[in-house]
Amino acid sequence: MGSYSGSCEIVEAGEELKPVQRSRRTYQPHIGLGIGEKDQKPPVQKLGYKNSLENDINQLFEAINVKGPKGLSVSYQGGTSSSSLKKNALKKPIAVGMPHSPRIGGSEPLSLKQALRDLCISKASEMAAMKRLSMSISSPSASEAGRVKSSFNPVVVDSGVPGNEHKGSMVEVSFVPEDDKPTSSRMMTAPRQAPKNKLLSQSANCSPQFPRATMQISTGTSTSTQTDSSTSRKVGTQAPKAEMCRKEKHTSASSPSCSYADDNTLEPESTVPASTKVPKRSPVPKSGRKGRLHAGPSSSLTNGNKASRTTRNVPRVAKTIVRNKSSIKKKTKQDSSSAANTSKEVNSHLDSNASQLICQRCQCSMKTSSNETNQDSIKSQSAGIIAEVSSSHVSSDMHKPTLVENNSNRSQAAIPRAKNSPKAREKGDISQSSSSLGDSSSTSISGDSNLSGSTCGNKPHMSKDMRWDAISHIRMQDGVLGLRHFNLLKKLGCGDIGTVYLAELSGTNCLFAIKVMDNEFLARRKKMPRAQTEREILRMLDHPFLPTLYTQFVSDNLSCLVMEYCPGGDLHVLRQKQPGRCFYEPAARFYVAEVLLALEYLHMLGVVYRDLKPENILVREDGHIMLTDFDLSLRCTVSPTLLKSSSYLDPARLSVQCTASSCVEPFCVEPTCHVPCFGPKFLPTSAKTKKKAKEDLAAKVRSLPQLVAEPTDARSNSFVGTHEYLAPEIIKGEGHGAAVDWWTFGIFLYELLYGKTPFRGAGNEETLANVVLQSLKFPDSPLVSFHARDLIKRLLVKEPENRLGTEKGAAEIKQHPFFEGLNWALIRCAVPPELPELYELGVPTMMSPEAETSKYLEFKATGEHLEFELF
Ligand SMILES: Nc1ncnc2c1ncn2[C@@H]1O[C@H](COP(=O)(O)OP(=O)(O)OP(=O)(O)O)[C@@H](O)[C@H]1O
C-alpha cells in the first residue's frame, strides 16, 4: 500500500544511517569475543570511537564493581573473581584468543581491565581496517553513509518550504538502485518466516518506487504538529529527470564503462547490405477492437497461440543470487576471519550498495580488458557510430528481489526459440549462450559498457540479464550492431509507427522484440516526434513492469528498438479467453495493481502515459505484466513531494478508512487477515489484542511520510488516446494532465471485471458523447465487490480535479480498500493469476543468411501504414 511504500523508504533511509551507527554498535558484541593482540596499547585517540569503546569498557567494569553481588570480591587486578559467571564470560575471548593473551585468573600480572581494553582496541583496529578496505574498494574517500548516499544518488533537500512548520527538519529523498536492498519491507515483514516463494531480502524491489525513494527524516527541531494535508512538504524541485541526469553524470564519471549518448542520436549500422532494404506496401489494418485517435489506422496483434492455459498454483521460486557482494565481500571475509560478526556488518553495508558493486565489477573488467575495449572503441568509431544507445535511466530501486532461478535473470532473458519444452530449452539456452560467449564473457560486459552503454549499471533490475552480454559480444566482434545480426522470426504486431518482430540475436539464442520504424515514413507522416518520445521514454525505464530497452540502432534508415520480448500475449487477448470474457476479481486486482505501480513509476519520471488499455499490457513469461507503447505519452516535469503523516489520506476521496496491511502474501484478499506477517513471537494471542495490534500498526504506517511524485502541472491539449478510454477532459478539449491516467485506470479496471468498457456506444461519436455525458452504471453481472465498484466510481469522476489520484497520484489509489491486504512491496513476487499462454515459437527453420536478408525484410510501407513482411 502506499503507506507501505512510504514506510519502506523511511526504513531504508534509516538503514542508510546504520553504517555510521553500527561502527560503534558492532564493536560491543566483540568485547567478549575479541582476540587479544598484544599488551601494547594503540594510540586510541586516533580513532574517535575507541575512546567510546574504552569508556564503554570502563563503564562495564564500573558496573560490575557497583552491581557485583554483595560479598563478592571482584578483582580486576589480580584476575581473581569469585563470580564464575563473569569469570566465564570474561575468560572466553581470552581463552579462545591468541596464545599470548593474558589469562584471567592466571599467573600473568596483567590486569583484566587492561587485557580487555587491549582486546577491544585490537578489535576496533580490525574493524577500522576492514572498513577502510571496503571503503577503498567501493568508493574511496567516502564515509560509509556518504558512500551509500553518493552511490544511490540521493536527493537531499532542505524541507524549508516557506511557511513550513518543520523548519529545521531535514528531509532527504534518495533514489536508489533497484538491486539494492530495501530494508523497509524487511522491517515491516521480516520477523515472519521467509515468504513461500523465497523472496529475497530485497523484496522491496517490488515496491513501486522505481526509482525508489528512500527518505531520511531528521526531525531536528521539527515541531511535528501538522495535522492537515497542507502540511505536505515539497521535497525539492529536483524532478526525477534531473536526478536521471545526475545519475548519468555520476555513473559515467565514476564508471568509464558506462557511456551515454545523446538522446536524439542513434547508432547507425553502417554495414547493412543494400539487399536488406525492402519495398514498402500498404498497411494491414489493426485487428484490434479499438481504433486509436491521433494517428492512422492502428493495428493490434493477437497471438494465435492455442497453447493450453495453465493455472499457476506453484509459487515461483526466487532464489537469491547475491552476486553483488562478490569479491569485495569475500575479500573482506578473508581478511578478517577472526571478525566474522564485523565482517557481516561490513558486508551488509556493501549489500546496500549492490548496484555500485556491480559497476565496480564492470570497472574491474574494464581494467583487465582495457586493451580490447579500447580497440573496440576505436573500431566502433571508425565504423561510423554516431551515438551509442544508453539508457538514461533513473536509478531504480529495488529493487527487486531478483526473480531468478539459478542463472536467474539470465534464464528469463534467454527465451528459447526451439519448439520443445520451453523450460528445458531455457536452460539449454543459458548454457549454450554462456558457452558461446564463453571466452569473452569476462570482458563482454565491460566492452559493452563502452560500446553500447548497455551496462549492468543502466538497468539495475535487469543487470543479470544475459542479453546484455550477448549484445555486447556481437558488438565487440563486429564493432557495430545492426538488423543483419538478428534473425527475424515472427511478426508480433504492427503499430502506427512501426512493426514489432520477434527476433533472435544470431548465434546467441537470445530473443528480443524489435520495433522497426522507417524513418522516411515517419518523417513523411509527421510521426517522428512520436517515435522520438517512445525512444526517449524507453531509454529511461528500469522497472519490472515496463519494457527494457537493450539497444537501439539505425539500419538502412530503419530505426530499430531492441526490447525485452514478452511472450504471453496481451491482456486484451487474455481477457477474452476468460470465462465470461472477464477476469475474476483477484486476477483483475493483480493486473491493475501491477499496472498501477508501472503508472506510478512513469509519473515519477514525468511521463503521463495516456494510452492505457488491455492491448498495451503484455504478459510476461512469468505471468507478470509489462506496460508497453509510449508513443502517445506526454513528458513533463514532476516535483516529488513528501507528505507527512496521514494527511495524504483524504477520507472524502476514500469510501472507507483504510487499514494498512502487513500481510506477507501480496495478494491476500482476506480483509480479516490480521497481522499475519509477523512471526509468532510478535503475534498477540487473543483476537482482541490482534485487532489492537493491527490498528496500532495501521496507525503507525499511516503516520509515516509518503512520497508523492505526481506530475500535477502536466498540461496538454492533444486529442490522444483510444475512444473508449478517453477521459472527458480530453474529449472536451479542456486540456488535460496526469489525471487522465487515473481515468483510464478506472476504465481498465472496469473492463477487466465486466468484460467491456462503461461508455462504449454504437460508434466512436456515441462513445465520446457517453464518456462526457453518461453517468457510470454497473451491470448486474458479473458480481463485483463493493470496493471494486467504489474504486471505479472514484476514478471515473468526470471532473479531473475530483478524481481519485489527481492530487496525490498512485499513493492515493493504493490506499483504497480495494487493495487492502496487498503488500505492494512484494507484488513482484506474487504468484500471478495464471501462467500466460506463451507464443508458440513455431519458428520456421532458419533460413540461410543470404535468404534472410533478401527475403525476411520485405519492408512495405505505402499509404497509411508501414509494415514489414517476414515471409
Ligand atoms: N516487447 C514485446 N514483446 C512482445 N510483443 C510485443 C512487444 N512489443 C510490442 N509487441 C506486440 O507488437 C504489437 C505492436 O506493438 P506497437 O507498440 O508497435 O504497436 P501498438 O501497440 O499498436 O501501438 P502504436 O500504434 O502506438 O505503435 C503490440 O500490439 C504487441 O502485441
Automatic annotation (TrEMBL):
It comes from Gossypium raimondii (Peruvian cotton). It catalyses: L-threonyl-[protein] + ATP = O-phospho-L-threonyl-[protein] + ADP + H(+); L-seryl-[protein] + ATP = O-phospho-L-seryl-[protein] + ADP + H(+). Keywords: ATP-binding, Kinase, Nucleotide-binding, Serine/threonine-protein kinase, Transferase. GO terms for molecular function: ATP binding; protein serine/threonine kinase activity. Residues 159-351, 389-460 are annotated as: Disordered. Transmembrane segments: none annotated. This is non-specific serine/threonine protein kinase. SMART domains: S_TKc. PROSITE patterns: PROTEIN_KINASE_DOM, PROTEIN_KINASE_ST. It comes from the Eukaryota. Residues 218-232, 430-455 have a biased composition (Low complexity). Residues 486-819 form the Protein kinase domain. Belongs to the protein kinase superfamily. AGC Ser/Thr protein kinase family. The keyword Nucleotide-binding applies. Its EC number is 2.7.11.1. Residues 199-208, 297-313, 335-351 have a biased composition (Polar residues).
